[in-house]
Amino acid sequence: MSGLTDDERRAQGFAVRREVLSDEHVDRAIAATTDLNADFQDFITRVAWGDVWSRPGLDRRSRSIAVLSSLIAHGHHEELAMHLRAALRNGLTLDEIREVILQSAIYSGVPAANTAFRIAGEVFAAEGAS
């Protein structure tokens, strides 16, 4: 997204981050910002959310599928729980998420998919979506 200033990318990033992850999540992240992680928080807001998630090449549903697959493959369980909630906000159904996790069993391994199904069950039960 060249042509945008850092301030514009930051503003765009916060808007997309709030739409995808929720105001509550972003507010918690802002409240937890310290001198140690402030640069990182700014970086992910500008780059991950202001640049990559804001690109027109994929819709948010497709981006959620890609993110879920990557998080499952790499075992990033805390991020997986957060992005399972985001996938619902981005319009994926429970059936579609089930298929993403099942597909990951083939390419990322049965243990990774087993853990993802456990986390999904916990997240969806807490969200009242199971």
Can you offer a commentary on this structure?
The chain has 130 residues and is mainly alpha-helical. The chain has helices spanning 6-21, 23-31, 38-52, 60-74, 77-89, 94-108, 110-127. Helix 4 runs antiparallel to helix 5 (77-89) and helix 6 packs antiparallel against helix 7. The mean pLDDT is 96.
The percent of residues in helical segments reads over 70%
Helix segment tally? 7
Structural class: mainly alpha
- How many structural domains are formed by the residues? 2
Radius of gyration: 15 Å
Gap from first CA to last CA:
37 Å
Q: H/E element string? A: HHHHHHH
The proportion of residues in beta strands is under 5%
Query: So what's the overall shape?
Result: globular
What would a concise description of this structure say?
This protein is an all-alpha fold. The chain contains seven helices and no strands.
Topology of helices and strands:
Elements lengths: L5 H16 L1 H9 L6 H15 L7 H15 L2 H13 L4 H15 L1 H18 L3
Helix pairs in contact: 1-2, 1-3, 4-5, 4-6, 5-7, 6-7
Could you name the key traits of this structure?
mainly alpha; 0% strand; 2 domains; single chain; AhpD-like; 7 helices; 78% helix; 130 residues
